[in-house]
From TrEMBL:
SUPFAM superfamilies on file: Cysteine proteinases
Gene Ontology molecular function, alphabetical: arylamine N-acetyltransferase activity
PANTHER family tied to this protein: ARYLAMINE N-ACETYLTRANSFERASE 4-RELATED, N-HYDROXYARYLAMINE O-ACETYLTRANSFERASE
Keywords: Acyltransferase, Transferase
Entry-linked InterPro entries: Arylamine_N-AcTrfase, Papain-like_cys_pep_sf
Family: Belongs to the arylamine N-acetyltransferase family.
Enzyme class: transferase
Protein name in UniProt: Arylamine N-acetyltransferase
Gene field: nat
EC numbers: 2.3.1.5
Amino acid sequence: MVGMVTQTLRSQPALDVAAYLARIGHAGSVEPTLATLHGLVTAHLTHIPFENLDPLMGIPVADLSAEALGAKMVQRARGGYCFEQNGLLAYALEELGYAVESLTARVVWMRPEGLDAPTTPLTHQLLVVRVPGDPRRFLVDVGFGGQTLTAPIEFVPGLVQQTPNEPYRIGVRGDEYFLETLIGDVWQPVYIFADSPRPAIDLQVGSWYVSTHPASIFVVGLTASMIIDGARWNLRGRHLAIHRPGEPGERVRFENASQVLALLMNTYGLDVGGIGDVHQRITEVLDS
């Protein structure tokens, strides 16, 4: 693995930004402004699904280069998870003139102990983005699946910030920060992170871990999420949850892998060819 990592950390071809913009359906301005940043985040989330088919099929996600991510998510009409989603967006934003830093986080979402949960690995990537001429810093995250930020938020602790879906805020915990979101009338922590940019090698190690560890949720079960008509469409195994802002949630239970696969291909728009017998693997993890 060392040789492979060394090779991928060498100078990398730039992302084909025109192809990326076409993939996400962004036909507006590409001037590096805050308005453009909002538009890119929205377009990305509504066109590139969060999904874990590669780890589920036993394919490690080790190459996070612009070339590899562009080939998979732009050219092959696939999605990806955090290291891929935020990695792809980071390459695009840098090419467009934004300053981008990659941070890593420890996920505590849906853990009963919340912020007091036992320490977890740094298995999530998020971005801090600067707009030219603007002194503010913005937290951007298109890679947290079912509860990902649907808009950039200012990196200002304590400030409640509304997104097109839920309100979010950044909290302080010792020398670290945490992101939390308001679900109903309860603030729920999402992840804990340090304001410390991470080099590419740290991101590659994290991605290798979550795509190969035998207990990883991405290895043992199917996950897919997307923003569709403003709603969160969150799939886990045979179970689909649809969350529309301000409305009661909707839940669907699929009877078999064929129905799940149809959703992935026809609604999420995924090309699942060339990675093995996806139907059989989904059948095995319908209830995982």
